[in-house]
Amino acid sequence: MSVIIGSMTTVNIGGTEGFQSVNWATQVSPNRLWELGSWDPYKTQVTKTITVNVTTYAGTISTMTLAPSTSCTDSSAKKTVSISVGACGPTGSISFSESGMFLMSYSYSKGDPTAFGTESWSFQKWVDADASGDEFLNILAPTCVIQGKSEGSRSGNATNLGVVFQDTGQVTGQQGNVSAGFPGVGSASDTIYGLVTQVGGGSLEDSGKIGESSASIPHSPLYLS
Asked: pTM for this one?
């Protein structure tokens, strides 16, 4: 186990400033193939992915255009993510740099009229599994990862809510709340749902305004012979 010092740790996703927090994981998923007559697996399939989630001040990461794939080539919604860790203790393989990490989700939040806007970005990459031993069947990285149509929502009156919708296909909902008191203050707002064509660039400083948004960016790995 290592103890990580935040002030000595840097994240680079097209720039190194404005990052509040980061968490990352290399996830290895075994799929054991069981057989009759034995407690030992016949074989074990292994897949491996890398995930990174970052929270930033709004505008830290440049905007990303979301374009559904029209051919069997990698999605363009990807970034190179580098993490340089300042750690006490074992540091063997903590720091890393991965190109072509695909954006899976995005959100913007400014819940207080006097606060700063923040953004959360979630990335994932499928990589070659590398378990050693004759009992393992390592699944290699996909041939390509295609992007589907992205959906999202936004609400509030901030100047830039971090998501851009295509012109058609939008619907609007409403929510509100208020409770008794002196004076008893509540709020009401509209939420717009639609197909998203761009994320990022939400308002950082927007005095007296609030807002939030989110988008889900579906990516599907393809394994072609």
From this structure: 0.92
